[in-house]
Amino acid sequence: MQITATELKNRLGRYLDVAETNPVFVKKSGRNKSVLISNAMYEKFLAYEDAYWASKAKIAEEEGYLGDKASEELLRGA
């Protein structure tokens, strides 16, 4: 669903309800400005992001990444 910022302002309660099941795309001055989503969807996105970065960290560790502390010690010659 796409609406204008003015429409969102005038009918916020309605679009908060819509956002529980579908994202609401908000346009301002004819351009996409924001997306209104449910808290559940936001939490899901955060979980996906956490899982993505955890997998990247695991891959880096498997490839020999030393970590911040070990890298600093190596660069200092300790």
- The residue fraction in helices comes out at 55-70%
Low-confidence residue ranges: none
The backbone outline, from C-alpha atoms, is elongated
Separation of the first and last Cα atoms: 58 Å
Look at the helices and sheets and give the structural class.
alpha+beta
Number of separate domains: 2
Rg of Cα set: 21 Å
- What share of residues are in beta strands? 15-25%
Summarize the main sheet: 3 strands, mixed
| Oligomer designation | single chain
Order of helices and strands: EHHEEHH
**How many helices does DSSP assign?**
4
Strand order of the largest sheet: 1-2-3
Overall mean confidence score, pLDDT? 93
Describe the structure.
With 78 residues, this protein is of the alpha+beta class. The chain has two domains: 2-37, YefM-like fold (3-Layer(aba) Sandwich); 40-76. Helices cover 60% and strands 18% of the residues. It has four helices and three strands; from the N terminus they run βααββαα. A three-stranded mixed β-sheet has the order 1-2-3. Strand 2 and strand 3 form a beta hairpin. The longest helix has 24 residues, at 39-62. The protein is elongated, with a radius of gyration of 21 Å. The mean pLDDT is 93.
Main traits of this protein?
elongated; 3 strands; 2 domains; YefM-like fold; 3-stranded mixed sheet; single chain; alpha+beta; 78 residues; 4 helices
Q: Could you give the topology of this structure?
A:
Blueprint: E1 2-4, H1 5-10, H2 12-19, E2 24-28, E3 31-36, H3 39-62, H4 68-76
Parallel strand pairs: 1-2
Antiparallel strand pairs: 2-3
